[in-house]
Amino acid sequence: MIAKRKQLLETTKQEISNMSLKLLSNPQEHIYRLRDLFKLAAGHDLHHLIRDNIMRLAAVSLSQVFIDIIPGYHIRPPTEEEKKQKMKKDTKKLMEFEQTLLRYYLKFLQLLEKFALKLIPRDRKVFDDKCADVKMSALSVKCLGRLLNGASHFNYATNIVECLVRICVSNYTSAVEDSCAALAQMFKEDYIFKMSLHGAKTIANLVNQKASAVSPLLIRTLFSLNIKEVQKTDEKSKIPDLKKKKFQLAKERKSKSASKYKKQLQKLENDLKEAEASESMSTKLKYATDTMNHVFMTYFRVLKRMPTAALLDPVLEGLSKFAHLLNIEFFTDIISCLEDLIDQKHLRVTDAIHCVHTVFVILSGEEDQERQHLRVTDAIHCVHTVFVILSGEGQALNIDPFRFYKTMYRLLTDLPFQKKEDQERQVELVVRTLDRMINARRKQISLLRVAAFVKRILAVGFMMNTRCHIAFLAAIRNYFVAHPRLSSLVDDEQEVITNGIFRPDMEDPDCSNALSTTIIPELQKLQKHKEKLVQQFALNILKNLPNSGPAQLNGQYTSMKPWNWFDEERKTLIVNPDIVYFEKEINAFAGKKKELNSDVYQGIIQKWISPVL
Predict the structure, then answer these.
(1) 601-609 and 447-461 helices cross at what angle (nearest 10)?
(2) Alpha-carbon separation of residue 43 from 63, 66, 215, 448 (angstroms)
(3) Is 486 exposed, middle or buried (0-12, 13-18, 19+ CB in 10 A)?
(4) Is residue 230 part of a domain?
(5) For 52-85, how does the pLDDT look when each residue is reduced to its tens digit (9 = 90+)?
(6) What percent of the chain is helix, strand and coil (3-state, nearest 5)?
(7) Is residue 457 domain-resident?
(8) Which of 12, 289, 387, 527 can pair with 230 through a Cys bridge, CB separation 3.0 to 4.6 Å?
(9) Domain that holds residue 503
(10) Band of the pLDDT at 346, cuts 50, 70, 90?
């Protein structure tokens, strides 16, 4: 039995190989071989011992054959009149080839779709990877993805997109990953945006149909869109008017001299070519505009319904990435939506897993309201998204983002209590967001507020690993550059600017009275850090950013953005990047006072550093 199976496999494999080679060597001559390959992929007339293996092998082979022999143009079916017309032998042969190719391509796509859709069961059953049907279904998804990206210009490409999007509601993870990878590649490689429009529209429809209960991977595929600009206004085409002028000029030809007619005609033709080129670009922009409308509609629906907190991350990242393409009319609504998202509950660390829980309403007006937990990362994304929006065309809006400053200020003390594996990603996002909040808006933000953030960031850094700590110090150095009057924080001889005492326990940065204190104790404490880079940054800030002398900082470090310290190529600059040097000392000190948590964190840090004074 085993020997017979092996012999049958080898024989059929050789047949598949021979048919594929003939099709590739001369597609028009051997186009009928598509029928034989299709029968094998469909499992027709195959011995039961080799049926499953040969079906998968034939499907893979046929996919590659189609990718290689599909022409670089869209095939349209001939009209009835064209069928009745007499044609040259070569023309007739080409038409027969095209129609045969199209017929079997459609049959093959329908076959793949039939297998692929088996991965969307009505019940939530678990799939067995060893099952032959599951293997064939998973392979069909891969084949559809290859055909989409190998022949996205060809017939039925939109049908493939619709099928792959439907697969994304499956509970078979690898199929969802393959579908999303294919869709992301399509978005990435599409510069005309026609296929992108169809993909975004299909995703938007699915999100609406499923009440936003879709895979985060599907939402994340939209990141791959290559759209850099959209159409701001609807411009009327100039081509009809120019053609009308050209026709009128031809009627007046007899009344004009030859040279004058030629000159006017040349000008009109040049204007017409320019208008046609402009309209081609306008069509591309229209596709891009319509695509982004569907993308933003998807994001809004998810934010409104929020079926799972996992969707919030890709939605907020997407809003940040494409904020410059958002119509200014929607800015106020989006910011209001994000305000509601943050302000429903206070975002704090509440348990040993270091998650911050906030409860917010998803479906307003219902008594039995669904609630979700908003993680620290999600809250930071909310703030980041708002300031991305406000840094573009949103600058023209009269919106006070104070509540987002207050939220970020409060979230900072949550960072030391997050999972260690999440902290670097969170700090990277924080320093990016603070750059927009403090540096990009330096003309709108008060010195008192900046000083409060500097004090809190320094306090938080003591309980973070070395890489995060350096990123924070690099950010603070940038704040000193953007806000020169912060030098009062490192000048022990200068009188305090405000009266009263510093309140580290306040959650409002404007009420913390940060300008009544100094950051000298924190920076002196950092001189005891084992990492030399930390010492250098601290000394440079302590001496008010000198450009020469022993406190000067290497130009390589000053030119880097704070978030660049998390790049792979920069990680070698730090000797011990993962060590939290002061952790044991702070925990031991806090143990004598009270339990260390985000509410009392900065107050305890202030008491801990006080002996340095």
Answers:
(1) 80
(2) 16, 19, 33, 75
(3) buried
(4) no
(5) 999 999 999 999 999 999 999 999 888 888 777 8
(6) 65, 0, 30
(7) yes
(8) 289
(9) 436-609
(10) very low
